[in-house]
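The protein record filed here:
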Amino acid sequence: MAPADWFRPWRAGLTPDDALMVEACLRAAADGPFFPDWEFSALFGFERTEIRKLVANWRTEADEYRLWCAVSSSMNNLSGYPHRKDDALERMIPGGRAALEASYERLEQASGQSDNARRLLTIRLERFAEMDHAGLESEGRLVHDIATSAERPGVPVPVLIRDHLWQRWLPDGITGVVVDGSPGPTERSGLLSLVHQACRDEEASPPVKQRLESVRSFESFRVDRRHETPVWILIHLTVRILAVTLDDPSTMFVGAQFVDWPPMERVEAASVWRVVGAAEAMAPLDSARTVRLGAPEQHDLGYWKPATLGDLAFNHWD
């Protein structure tokens, strides 16, 4: 099998844990209960018997690119195909789904596949960025799916596309439900560094994190301003948005008074995070923007009935 131009040899640098994972995934794909015979070749690009042979021979397989295609298909389908056999997956894969996904991410990087995926996503996003609003609208859900896929490997999404998607549909995770691509502690720490600098430039106090007694969808940081009332900066935990309020979030925090604080404009300009302004946060919630949210978030919407975007995004729901 002729290797793709992006492919890099990956087998020689395997850690012992990743080597165990490769063999376990090939064996689970070939002999496990996950994939029906009638669909196997369409999912894998291999017959089941071919994968089964690789279980025994993968360390000496001469065609390393062909081996990678089999390994990648096995790992991707075991983690992504709706086989509904998670109990069997936990038994057959050392460390279960989380270990599988972590190993796959490392091997994608080693083989060059993740670099190629980032390149392809960048090309698609650049083409979308050349469109006007009507053109993006005509692409429908595809723009959303490509942009969401780009966030996980850190591919920059052009501002035009981010603005279009934000105005069209609120992103998955807006209620605080953790979703793929949610910002992690390291990313939030980087944002907080920008917030620190913006406060310093404004001669305001450094942001001080609050302890909040109940579960929240955000972290809260108090900032004392010279000759003005304090503000609280709210950094969302699962979506890349932040907002500023005059109300202390240690209260139950419904119907908060959001404000526009100019230093946050510099934070927005220097990052991929969106500052939700006062007018948008306190405007009546447009239900058309919530129709694509998943079932858990739809349940929360129905139960809590938020009146504004601010109430929806920066909430204390348990």
Notes: Strands lie at 208-209, 218-223, 231-236, 241-245, 258-259, 274-275. The mean pLDDT is 91. The longest strand covers residues 218-223. The radius of gyration is 23 Å.
